[in-house]
Amino acid sequence: MLWSLFWVNLLGTIYGYYWYWDQLVLTTESMSPGYLIFVPDSPTASLFFTGVIAYLLFDSYQKPKRSSLQATGWFRGLIEALAVITSFKYGIWAVTMIWAGAYQGDSVNWQDWMLTVSHLGMAAEALLYLRLYTYRVNAIIVAALWTLLNDYMDYGMGLFPWLPASLDDDLTIVAAFTIQLSFISIILSWVMLQVRKLLDKRKV
């Protein structure tokens, strides 16, 4: 199961960066290469989750197995918090944008259905390994700051993912929805931490 998820996420990440290729090139030519990190939102989220799975695969070969709350390094916790927040956020965001565009008249093709299924999977898998995450509050804070900075770069600097044509005149609403979804995702990561602590106490 873990190996399947690892390869699905890794290949999806590569395809996602390819999907953003034209926007990456345009950003480089018209703005600055320094902005590139803020352009491909969904692929970067799936890259974070690929990292989470890599850590879980590493754990599966370690004996004895560690408690989910045992400290395993700040970097791992940060990757996990980033994966939870961004995977849930952009999973829901992408599906919402696709079908909001369709509601306003954009045509729906097979790629939209593929993106819908894959992004719903992103949102779901962020919740899948709740018991095995190790992140703490400090990791949530850093991941939250990154997520909100990304929102600023998207809608303050114009680096947001290209939208369906019918949503071009709704950018203010899209920006507000995105920021609200960021806060929902950040709160969700904190709630998951509290649930994990509660489950671990009951297990003891």
Explain what you see.
This protein is mainly alpha-helical and 204 residues long. It has one domain. Helices cover 74% and strands 0% of the residues. Helix 3 (41-60) crosses helix 4 (74-103) and helix 6 (137-156) packs antiparallel against helix 7 (171-203). The chain is globular and about 50 Å long. The two termini are 27 Å apart.
Count of discrete alpha- or pi-helical segments spanning 4 or more residues = 7
Q: Distance N terminus to C terminus?
A: 27 Å
Number of strands: 0
In N-to-C order, the SSE pattern is HHHHHHH
Rounded Rg: 18 Å
Query: What integer is the average pLDDT?
Result: 91
Spans of at least 5 consecutive residues with low confidence = 66-71
Counted up, domains total: 1
- Biggest sheet features: none
Q: Which range best describes the helical content: under 10%, 10-25%, 25-40%, 40-55%, 55-70% or over 70%?
A: over 70%
Secondary structure class reads mainly alpha
Q: Name the beta content range.
A: under 5%
Shape: globular
Transmembrane segments: 5-21, 33-58, 78-101, 113-130, 137-153, 173-193
Keywords: Membrane, Transmembrane, Transmembrane helix
Protein name: DUF1405 domain-containing protein
InterPro entries: DUF1405
